[in-house]
Design goal:
The chain has a single domain (7-267), classed as Rossmann fold (3-Layer(aba) Sandwich), CATH 3.40.50. It is α/β, with parallel strands linked by helices and 268 residues long. Strand 4 and strand 5 form a beta hairpin. The protein starts with 6 loop residues before the first strand and ends with a helix. The relative contact order is 0.16. Helices cover 37% and strands 25% of the residues. The strands form two sheets. Strands 6-7-8-3-9-10 form a six-stranded mixed sheet, sandwiched between helices. A four-stranded antiparallel sheet has the order 2-1-4-5. The chain binds adenosine-5'-diphosphate and magnesium ion. The site of magnesium ion has 3 residues, from helix 1.
């Protein structure tokens, strides 16, 4: 159990390499998708990760969820290296760090009703009692603004925005401490983006730590206390969102600000 305000997730000098094959007879060349990245996320806080496409944002999310493993450095959950957690600690970590993916269409099994898709995690991590499971399901469907009748339906019966809400409900349904959302609205219509973002905002009122990857400085400044600016696999800047965006230290952050529609500075 970590205290509020202590580090819940940290990267310590993390590098991650991938191989590119550059020709038929040539050997693959490795490059750093992440290069010596260090930062921490405090319990109950919110972090926005920004940076151009290919800068390493998704790689960070995947390392934090143990989908990728660091080639150098360590990923810590509540101060402990995730590669050395005991079985019980690992189960707690898996339950508590949930990811919401960019494209909700690939994350829900088309053959399962929403009820089965959501019940699995609850059964595994929370309770096996049928009535309690039903109560959990109804609570989280309500939280993401969907009627309980939808539980009996299949993913193809929903719009992209609804599917993303279901993915969020599934992530929330096992009471995680951290939600890592990788561009959760970029595959959705503009009309439903605000609803999902409001939902993300409401999570923080419930004490959930939010790590939000976004293209939009406006979204991050609205939702996240802290910001990490990624550039070509390196951390260009990290700090309080308002401080970083009102007084950017790196040239890269300045250029991101100049090219975005973010207007906080101009308006204040
Ligand atoms: N599984 C992978 N295999 C090979 N290269 C990868 C893989 N995942 C990411 N990369 C590469 O690592 C770099 C960073 O990718 P990514 O973290 O997805 O960036 P972002 O999310 O900021 O767009 C990119 O050059 C990408 O092509
Ligand atoms: Mg990405």
């Amino acid at each position: 159990m970590q205290n509020k305000g202590s580090n819940i997730l940290s990267l310590e000098q993390v590098s991650k390499y991938f191989y590119t094959s550059s020709g038929f007879f040539s050997h693959g060349k490795h490059f750093a998708a992440l290069d010596n990245v260090t930062f921490s996320v405090k319990s109950g806080s919110s972090l926005g990760i920004v940076g151009e496409s290919g800068s390493g944002k998704t790689t960070i999310a995947r390392l934090m969820c143990n989908i990728y493993q660091a080639d150098k450095g360590r990923v810590l959950y509540c101060g402990k290296d995730i590669s050395t957690l005991s079985k019980t600690e690992k189960q707690e970590y898996i339950k508590n760090v949930q990811m919401v993916f960019q494209d909700p269409n690939n994350t829900l099994n088309p053959k399962l009703t929403i009820k089965s898709a959501l019940s699995d995690g609850i059964k595994q991590h929370i309770t096996k009692d049928k009535n309690e499971i039903q109560a959990y399901l109804e609570h989280f469907m309500g939280m993401v603004g969907l009627p309980c009748e939808y539980l009996e339906r299949y993913p193809h019966e929903f719009s992209g925005g609804q599917r993303q809400r279901i993915s969020i409900a599934r992530a929330l349904s096992i009471n995680p401490k951290v939600i890592i959302a990788d561009e959760p609205v970029s595959s959705l219509d503009v009309s439903v983006q605000a609803q999902i973002l409001n939902l993300m905002k409401s999570l923080q009122k419930n004490g959930i730590t939010l790590i939000l990857i976004s293209h939009s400085l406006a979204v991050v400044s609205n939702l996240c206390e802290n910001i990490a600016v990624m550039q070509k696999g390196a951390l260009a800047e990290y700090g309080k969102t308002l401080e970083v965006l009102s007084n950017p230290k790196s040239e890269y952050t300045k250029s991101l600000l100049a090219s975005s529609s973010y207007t906080f500075m101009k308006n204040n």
